[in-house]
User: Fold these one by one.
Assistant:
Number 1:
Amino acid sequence: MKVLCFGSLNIDYTYKVEHFVQKGETISSQSLQVFSGGKGLNQSIALAKAGADTSHAGAIGTDGRFLLEQMEAAGVHTEHVAVLEDVRSGNAIIQNDKEGDNCIILYGGANQAITREQADSVIGSFAPGDYIVLQNEINELAYIMQKAHERGMKVILNPSPMDEKIKTLPLEYVDFFLLNEVEAGQILETEETEGEILADRLLERFPGAAIVLTLGSKGSIYADGKQKIRQKAYRVKAVDTTAAGDTFTGYFIAEMASGQTAERAMDLASRASAIAVTRAGAAPSIPLRKEVEEYVPNL
Ligand code: RIB
């Protein structure tokens, strides 16, 4: 099956800081690095590195051509990425602290200039049964979901970053949700934080979907109408957690699209994201399949 990732492409400006800047405070950073990023781009690169036949659709400005080069180098087909003359590429200002955690400010730029004509043309070149992977960093998401569903594609939604718009989407068309416990709580409008309970409630709400709930150091849970799988997290020393979730999503979906079991997909995705956390940056931190398969967990 082919996989289409219709999503954001960002230029990530990553500042290494002692601690995240507080309200009213000015701090100096220890370094600035510029990486390719964006949840869409990261997931496309993870999909391709995992071995999926991956196409990316989205939009950049002329300042973002290096993003295309980096996707192509990873094996992603980029003919469905529009290069716009009159708008900047999306970008992200990322603070990365000494624990490896981050906080991010997004500027949407070209990611918010997707047109329905582009969506129609892209989705028209995929077939029933192909996968479409979506996040929440582009406009026209509801339209894209509707058209992909009508086309018979499998719809994968990573509702990140979470905001009120997610609740207005046709979530009944989603075949796979990949989300964390905070996003799950917001979709369900509950204060509940227990992973098992959230997974059950998501399944009750979306009985036709499969749920992949990531729980940080507590691992992750896969649940569908027939089975529930609990996957441990592989423990590593974090350098930069940016794109760890995207790496998990890309590896998990690549395995499912190639007909592997959910159990195998969950384990491979956990290993891949553990490696990503030990490296700086977004897309550049995503490991090759060979590295993931040879990874010896340090439990
Ligand atoms: O998931 C990580 C990504 O979120 C970063 O690459 C940044 O661009 C934001 O989109």
Number 2:
Amino acid sequence: MDDIESPISTEVLGSSPLDITVDEGDETSKEVQSDPEPRHGSLWQEDSAVLEWMLCRKEDVKLEMGELEQALPQPVMYHELLWRDWQDLSEPLLTADQQFDFAVLSYNILSQDLIDQNSKLYQNCAPEILHWDYRWPNILQELQHWEADILCLQEVQDNHYREQVQPSLSALGYSCHYKRRTGRKTDGCCTCFKSQRFTLLAESHVEFFRPAIDVLNRDNVGLVLLLQPRLNEGTENGHAAPAPLCVANTHLLYNPRRGDIKLAQLALLLAEVEKLSRKPDGSHCPIILCGDLNSTPDSPLYQLLYNGILNYSGLPAWKVSGQEPYCTTPNPRFLCSPLWPDFLGINGCCQYVTQQAAQIKDKMVYTRECLLELRYCDYTLQRPKNLVMLKGVTDKEPDPCREPAHDILDNGRPSFRSQPLLLQHNLDLTSVYTHFLPSKGRVEVTTMTLGIGSTVDYIFYSAEPIPVRGRKHGLRFYQDAQLKLLGRLCLLSEEDLWAAQGLPNPFCCSDHLCLLARFSLDLSAGAKKE
Ligand code: KL2
């Protein structure tokens, strides 16, 4: 991937999107405000590829569906109208035979059935660019252009998977794996890897729908693959086979009001990732977790993933995903404890219970954190009946309801003095993206509907937490470990996207941007061959 620079300067056009209220079947409604003029960039129209597209487009003719197919604009060569810089992040310190480099791309490609079901969301787009026969060749060119070794796609419609996605990507050397959403949903997650670069060790299809569990009554899914890097001749020399790579791909529930469901779905995915990535010594192989989490970077769900811990005491369900700034229902739902019943077999540490029981048997040690949490548990708060009161000593009542004190322990995690409702995991994941564009002074966005941009897509990867007191915005600090982040494809700001007619547009054929990161796996961390 070459360093690239923008041929255009993007123009900031106005600030408020169109006034439309959307109400969707089993999901929820979204209300946004207004500016009746559709947004047209001006500079981008001078671009030769745009002009080519404009000439193909029969603008003033209202077309019937059959005619539309004939009038479809010819797919334009993949063209970076929305310029995306490649950001190099680290000088490779290791020699080529000590590292295994690979790139991962995550992309919600917008299923055609969802366009039809939520058509009001796309009413500002030219109908011909919403057509799958127009979008797919462009999406394919985009995928070809970036040449990632691993693709994590979401919203892949099953008939399109069988008829186009799988055949085209197989022809490009990818091994393709697909999990359709359950029930009547027609799209799903698709993970593909270059078969020259990896071999498949294990594959797990995770269905978040569990009959009889209220908080798991939706049809979202996840796909987890365990991939063995294939070292080439020169690299193989002197190194044991590197640890496998665990790659998870998901698309969590959209409904902004049901953060309780999103948390339970994420816990299920994390339990599966933990199981697949666990090595015999109890540590984990490097993990990459990609997808559309339908949650923003300032949300409690993000906090759980990034910090490894979330206290959800008193948290209303609508706040979990950060998608909405205020409550839109008169009787908001609060997260209940426990979030899911025991018979799901997953504990509050997002691990399958049988595995954790085995772990505890091995350890049998009370941690300082655990003892601190026990200090004010129900049992310790009960006074013996005939206790003799000593002034200043036993006449004081401990107050279990006071605000939790966030003591930061040596490992960087907080301990809570009152009884917390905790969700935790121990996978140590950090994000490829920082969610902010320092050069533009703007937040990054990964998706844009009706003129409103937000970040909901992520690539998380295994890193090493830095045990420091204090945090950046309540978040932990990490440094790279066995997986080193070599670079990423910069995201864009909401203003950049306005300047290009929003999403989808003639060049970006989904309502999401693709995320792309390059990693190197440190082979010297593995044992040398005898
Ligand atoms: O936000 V998304 O788009 O990650 O790109 O995920 C969901 C939404 C996807 C699958 O459910 O369909 C879209 N308003 C807006 N978008 C909706 C709605 C809705 N009410 N329902 C589903 N989606």
